[in-house]
């Protein structure tokens, strides 16, 4: 069919895109209303778009689908969620598969069904729900419990270290478990014998 209107074709809907409604990305034109993440359908703009070949994504979905995987490669708040990546065609579940649940619940109440798969915080032993979960050392923690075991400093992904199931800030970890001696932060001067 000839292109009578003179505009480019939209990369999402293949209809003509006129100049007043055009957004360009990766050499392709889109309608403003078609400029959406291919995975979560969130509206995009020049600061939130990430292109991969002919596909466009928000930065969060792009990171989940094409970014590095594994511990230490968190993508901001996205790494704290319980997202399995199913909507991206990914299988992010690692480790052994969970055993199948019984077909008939032992306690049929709605509240009991919600409580089945709740993780426990290693520090306080209470349930950790998705809204308050931070992963550290391969375990779920409450945001308020995600602190250094020695100095109590609040931790984040850039300054956390773990040893034997406990969390430490990098300073306390170095003082207590790092190498000792001159030049390693332990001794600063050699004392003279009198």
Explain what this protein looks like in three dimensions:
With 194 residues, the chain is of the alpha+beta class. It contains 3 helices and 12 strands, in the order ββββββααββββββα. The strands form 6 sheets. It has a two-stranded antiparallel ribbon. A two-stranded antiparallel sheet has the order 3-4. It starts with 7 loop residues before the first strand and ends in a 17-residue tail after the last helix.
Keywords:
elongated; 11% helix; 3 helices; 194 residues; alpha+beta; Cysteine Rich Protein; two-stranded antiparallel ribbon; disordered C terminus
Strand numbers in spatial order across the main sheet: 1-2
Number of strands: 12
* Regions with little confidence, pLDDT below 50 for 5+ residues: 92-99, 187-194
Helix content: 10-25%
Mean pLDDT: 75
Largest sheet: 2 strands, antiparallel
CATH topology of the domain at 20-64: Cysteine Rich Protein
């Amino acid at each position: 069919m000839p292109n009578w209107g003179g505009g480019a074709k939209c990369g999402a809907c293949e209809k003509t895109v006129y100049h007043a409604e055009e957004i360009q990305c990766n050499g392709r034109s889109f309608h403003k209303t078609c400029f959406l993440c291919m995975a979560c359908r969130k509206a995009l703009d020049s600061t939130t778009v990430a292109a991969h070949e002919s596909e466009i994504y928000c930065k969060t979905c792009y990171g989940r689908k094409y970014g590095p995987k594994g511990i230490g490669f968190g993508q901001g708040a996205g790494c704290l969620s319980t997202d399995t990546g199913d909507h991206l065609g990914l299988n992010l579940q690692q480790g052994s598969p969970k055993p199948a649940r019984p077909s008939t619940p032992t306690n049929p109440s709605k509240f009991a069904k919600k409580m089945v798969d709740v993780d426990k915080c290693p520090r306080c032993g209470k349930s950790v729900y998705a809204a308050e979960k931070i992963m550290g050392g391969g375990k779920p923690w409450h945001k308020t419990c995600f602190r250094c075991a020695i100095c109590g400093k609040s931790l984040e992904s850039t300054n956390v270290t773990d040893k034997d199931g406990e969390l430490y800030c990098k300073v306390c970890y170095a003082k207590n478990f790092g190498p000792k001696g001159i030049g390693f932060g332990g001794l600063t001067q050699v004392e003279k014998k009198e």
